[in-house]
UniProtKB/TrEMBL annotation:
Gene Ontology terms for molecular function: pyrroline-2-carboxylate reductase activity; thiomorpholine-carboxylate dehydrogenase activity; thyroid hormone binding
BP GO annotations: thyroid hormone metabolic process
Entry's EC annotation: 1.5.1.1, 1.5.1.25
Catalytic activity: L-pipecolate + NAD(+) = Delta(1)-piperideine-2-carboxylate + NADH + H(+); L-pipecolate + NADP(+) = Delta(1)-piperideine-2-carboxylate + NADPH + H(+); (R)-lanthionine ketimine + NADPH + 2 H(+) = (3R,5R)-1,4-thiomorpholine-3,5-dicarboxylate + NADP(+); L-proline + NADP(+) = 1-pyrroline-2-carboxylate + NADPH + H(+)
Name of the gene this protein is made from: CRYM
Regions that span the bilayer: none
Name this protein carries in UniProt: Ketimine reductase mu-crystallin
Species this chain originates from: Myripristis murdjan
Length: 317
């Protein structure tokens, strides 16, 4: 047993706010690092990445990641609620902790909202880079909340679409989204109107029943399905899940957490990392679904980028 007074206190963790994260994280830096990390994950080499499926109790998730070769030990803690009427708080709230992999002390406590928004949108953008049809012209977004904004930002930063459409639960929220985007988005009165003829479709809703039906989809379209991250929640119908070639961020995560996969009985063909490793084909010519559940690995890569930038900036001042 340790004698009293023999402990050395670790330095107090730094706290990095949402505004600081926003000023430090850029898609152009994040995307190549995420591609590298997704490829490492799919090789299942434990010296590169150990990242179990999220551990959950109702409304709370713990998302640890260890990257031995990169010296990264990290976890996100998050809550995802059905937003209470009248609450202005986001439906997904999170904090990312970076720990010293050698000693275990917490080095940084980082607001998770911008990280979650950007790394999720960046993963969807990687799926579109790999799987959307050549000469994609029309992007449709279903939902108009936090993820809708980050997805709009990265998709319009790295691709050029002739038309972007949005549908949301209420016309007013879709119009607020369009105003936020500077009016360059066509507000649609129904999900069907938004997705008919679209080449790329992003579903970012809190729906628990399908909002996107296979019968509306143009053959060869790519769907980045981001919501419905519980085993009994759906965004896509059985027809679409059975028709499409389905990719995921993590096969284990998809089989444990995705209602669209579990309840439709669809097979996950490959992970994005398998395409990046060249071990599975990217079926660009077919209708494809990327089922995103979100991975601790994506948070770890983003948080390391933020913490490294934060240290570089604060060591100069
Ligand atoms: N795959 C991943 O890595 C991540 C997934 N998510 C999930 O993405 C979804 C969107 O997240 P946020 O944008 O942060 O949420 P948010 O609360 O900011 O926005 C949700 C949007 O869904 C709409 N909506 C709610 N119920 C609906 C319904 N029954 N039918 C159609 N639209 C409905 C709302 O009007 C709103 O536009 C959530 O399901 C969330 O759990 C969030 C973060 C990461
Ligand atoms: O990975 C993530 O942060 C989330 N997945 C579902 C809700 C939040």
């Amino acid at each position: 047993m340790d004698r009293p007074g023999t402990h050395t206190m670790a330095a107090a963790p730094v706290v990095i706010s949402q505004d600081e994260v926003r000023s430090l994280l850029r898609y152009r830096d994040l995307i190549p690092r995420l591609e590298d990390a997704l490829a490492k994950f799919s090789r299942r080499d434990s010296a590169d990445v150990i990242q179990p499926v999220r551990s959950t109790v109702p409304y709370f998730g713990l998302m640890p990641t260890y990257m031995e070769n990169d010296g990264v030990l990290c976890t996100k803690v998050l809550c995802f609620y059905k937003r209470q009427a009248g609450s202005a708080l986001p439906s997904v709230q999170s904090t990312v902790l970076i720990l010293d992999p050698e000693y275990g002390n917490v080095q940084a406590v980082i607001d998770g909202e911008v990280i979650t928004g950007m790394r999720t949108a960046a993963a969807s953008a990687i799926s579109a880079k790999l799987l959307m049809p050549a000469r994609a012209e029309v992007l449709a977004i279903l939902g108009s909340g936090h993820q809708a904004r980050s997805h709009y930002s990265v998709f319009t930063e790295i691709f050029t679409f002739k038309e972007v459409r949005v549908w949301s639960q209420t016309r007013a929220s879709a119009e607020r989204f369009s105003d936020w985007a500077g009016g360059a988005v066509r507000v649609c009165g129904s999900a069907e109107e938004a997705v008919r003829g679209a080449d790329v479709i992003v579903t970012v809703t809190r729906a628990t029943e399908p909002v996107l039906l296979g019968q509306w989809i143009k053959p060869g379209a790519h769907v980045a399905a981001v919501g419905a991250c519980r085993p009994d929640w759906r965004e896509l119908d059985d027809a679409l899940m059975k028709e499409a070639v389905v990719y995921a961020d993590s096969k284990e995560g998809a089989k444990a957490e995705s209602g669209d996969i579990i309840l439709s009985g669809a097979e996950v063909f490959a992970e994005l990392g398998d395409i990046l490793n060249g071990t599975s084909p990217a079926h660009r010519e077919k209708t494809t679904v990327f089922k995103s559940l979100g991975m601790g690995l994506e948070d770890a890569v983003s948080a390391k980028l933020v913490f490294d930038r934060w240290r570089a900036k604060n060591s100069q001042t």
